[in-house]
Amino acid sequence: MKRDMDLVREILLYVEKCETFVGPGTVKLEGHSDEVVEYHLKLLHEAGLLDVDTPSRNPYGTSWGVRGLTWQGHEFLDAARNDTIWRKSLGTLQKAGIGATKEVLVPLLLSLAKLQLGIA
Q1: How far apart are CA 55 and CA 60, in angstroms?
Q2: 39, 50, 76, 83: which has the fewest Cβ within 10 Å?
Q3: What stretch of H or E contains 58?
């Protein structure tokens, strides 16, 4: 299964809007199967962007309960919030043939934001 950075961003935006704990198996995003969403929740936990509850097993796989974003999750989302900067960053990485790793993407997002603000 491939990592989908647009889905990563969509999940972080979804979790940020939630005011309470998001129970296992309840993150539902249009256009994405439950299995793909759960896989990305796992990736976000591993990357240190989400605070999750102990995963629960069910007959269909693993479900993740989400407590919220971590500090790093908030930092990533703040850098990725602007749609124009987000698209430009992913396009720049794709043209260069570079994967959208957190370590490369966040500095790029921040530098493009500074350019947009005229403080680069």
Answers
A1: 13
A2: 83
A3: strand 56-58
Between strands 50-52 and 66-69, the pairing is: antiparallel
What is the amino acid identity at position 1? M
Q: What does the pLDDT look like over 74-110, one tens digit per residue?
A: 999 999 999 999 999 999 898 988 888 888 888 888 8
* Count of alpha carbons within 13 angstroms of residue 80, beta-carbon side: 24
Phi-psi region of 61 (alpha: psi -120 to 50; beta: other; left: phi over 0): left
Average pLDDT, the chain: 87
Question: Residue 82: which residues within 8 A CB-CB, separation 6 or more?
Answer: 113, 116
Of 112, 66, 120, nearest to 91 (Cα)?
112
Q: Closest Cα partner for 49 from 67, 26, 76?
A: 76
Contact 13, 83 (CB under 8 A): no
Contact 97, 91 (CB under 8 A): no
50 three-state secondary structure: strand
Position 115 scores a pLDDT of 86
State the residue for tokens 């793909």. Answer: 36
